[in-house]
Amino acid sequence: MFNFLANLNPNDLLAALDELRTSVAQMKCIDDRLAAVQRMLEYEFGSPVRDLPAHDPRNLPFIVQVPSGRVELAAGLGKLATRGHIANIGDNPAHLFFENQGKRVGPYTLVAGAALDISFALEALDVQADTSGPTMVQIFAQ
User: Fold this and answer.
1) Which residue segment(s) compose the domain that 77 sits in?
2) Of 38, 61, 68, 131, which sits most exposed with the smallest number of CB within 10 A?
3) The domain that contains 135 carries what CATH number?
């Protein structure tokens, strides 16, 4: 079964071994470069979270306009909103409260004509009108 090894030249085996070592070194360099690219992308866009479903481009976005009140984005999308924007299309400021996993953050005052990008996981959004008058907020979530 191993008779073919007896016919091989030891110099050929040593040359093949050197080429294999070179290939392993090149693969290590490629692996290091890929790790650097991954770190760069994680710094820019964040680390992927396994328990948070990613955006599926086949699903339509959730779009709603509300003067005030609570908007359940997770119920409308079937998952947490992770991208999109909130725009104040009214004439007065709006106070926003962000909710996720029982935690509530806010108020964030969104002035008239301004928009806020959603770059975090968002379960629900509570919109409250300012004392200066009614407002209108448009939510585009994916």
Assistant:
1) 62-141
2) 131
3) 2.60.120.10
pTM, full prediction: 0.66
SS3 (DSSP) at 114: coil
23 shares its domain with 75: no
CB proximity list for 4: less than 8 A, separation 6 or greater: none
Per-residue pLDDT tens for 117-133?
998 889 999 999 988 88
Looking at the structure, tell me whether residues 91 and 123 fall in a common domain: yes
Q: Is the Cβ–Cβ distance between 108 and 95 less than 8 Å? A: yes
Radius of gyration of the chain (CA): 28
Q: Tell me which residue of 65, 53, 62, 81 sits closest to 140, measured CA to CA.
A: 62
Q: Which of 69, 67, 57, 51 is nearest to 124 (CA)?
A: 69
